[in-house]
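Re: weekly structure request thread

Next one in the queue (222 aa):
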Amino acid sequence: MKTFAILPVKTFGAAKQRLSPAMDAGPRRALAEAMVADVLAALARVPELDTTVVVTADAAAREAALSAGAEVVADSEQAGQSPAAAAGIRHALNAGATRVLLVPGDTPLVDPAELSSLLASTPSPGVAIVPDRHGPGTNALVLDPPAVMAPSFGPGSFERHAAAARAAGAEPRVERPPGLLLDVDTGDDLATVAEALALRPGAAPRTRAALAERATSAGVSA
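Done, posted below.
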């Protein structure tokens, strides 16, 4: 079995707009870059993964991916997470992948052991869905084979993915690895991740540093 991880990465300057009430543009960009770097570092430590593919139009994301040993697919259309994921799947299929793991770049607490368990628990052929912590969204997919269904991220995506899997003849397995449940879209998400980091010394060091820098800057501004 040949397994590829696919990581769509939005242009950092346009990332995390929903955090605007809580963070200025500079810290938002720094946080987005830090979270992607932590996710890439985690993926590099998953022995079941043969290759990580980053789909992006951002030059800094491209450099981060290459530095982490990942392959890069140009996101020329920049049409959103689902089209970017689909482009990554096409690349993986052309490279001989028999299974893909789709993960987002805003889950900095993702743990390599959790990803190994997620891959091990997904039947072959089969589909696994990881919801977000609120329930209706999707934070990760395991697709075996890679083209068993088309990704359809966004609001309400959990039910869409479950229905698509069943339509393809695969009863989806629902998994909830704690590190993958915590994505960062809102100020409330940010506070939850900060609380989790306080309980996990050493986890997500780049994200931790970005949040510490933000707190220091806020203190100086005050």
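The beta strands are 3-9, 51-56, 71-74, 99-102, 126-131, 138-144, 173-174. The first strand starts at residue 3 and ends at 9.
Next request, please.
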